[in-house]
Amino acid sequence: MPDVQIALGRIVATHGVAGWLRLKLYNPEGRTLYSVAEVALASSGTHLTLRVDQVKPHQQFALLKLREIDDMDAARGLVGFELSVGQDTLKPLVGSEFYYEEVVGFEVLDINGEYIGTVTRIWPRQGTGLLVVAGPKKEHLVPAVKEFIREIDIVNRTVNIDVPDGLLEL
C-alpha cells in the first residue's frame, strides 16, 4: 500500500458467521470503497493490508468481505480498526476539489490561524456536506462550500475556513 492513506471509516461489528465486517463510513454517501482492490487497517500500532473480496451497502453501513478473513472469530479481531485506502487509488481531482474522506483528521483553523477543532467525519446533506468539527468545548458543523472553505492544505493537514459571524456559536 502507498504511504499516503485516506481514512474511509471504522469497523464497528462483525456481520454473520462467514467473516463479513460492518463498517461505519465517515462519508456514507462516498463510493470510494466500492472500487478498491485492497485496504489498509490500523489500530493501536497494528497495521494490516488486506484484499477486498466484496463490498455492499447495508442500512447506514457498508458490509465488507476481505479475502483473508473467513470466519466470525477472525472478523471479531478487526472490530475497532480504522479502514483506509491509498490516495493513489482515488480518481484525480481538478482545481480546488477534494474528497470528503481526505479531510477527516485535519485540523480546522479560522482566517486568523486560530484552532477551531478537528474534522471527525462528514455529514452528507442534500446540496452539500457538512464537516463535523470536534472543538475543545463543542462540536461545530461547517458547510463544505467554497464560500466558507478558503484552503485545504494536504501537506499540513489543515482546513482554513472563513465563516459568517455566529456560525460557530450555533
Query: How many structural domains are formed by the residues?
Result: 2
Class computed from helices, strands and strand pairing: mainly beta
Which sequence of SSEs, written as H and E, runs from N to C?
A: EEEEEHEEEEEEE
- CATH homology-level superfamily of the largest domain: RimM
Q: Which CATH-level-2 architecture of the largest domain?
A: Beta Barrel
Low-confidence stretches: none
Strand count, sense and barrel status of the largest sheet are:
6 strands, antiparallel, barrel
Would you kindly provide a brief summary of this structure?
This protein has 170 residues and is mainly beta. The protein has one helix at residues 72-76; strands at 5-15, 20-25, 38-43, 46-58, 61-66, 82-86, 107-109, 115-123, 130-134, 139-143, 149-153, 158-161. The strands form 2 sheets. The chain has a 6-stranded antiparallel barrel. Strands 10-9-8-7-12-11 form a 6-stranded mixed β-sheet, with no helix packed on it.
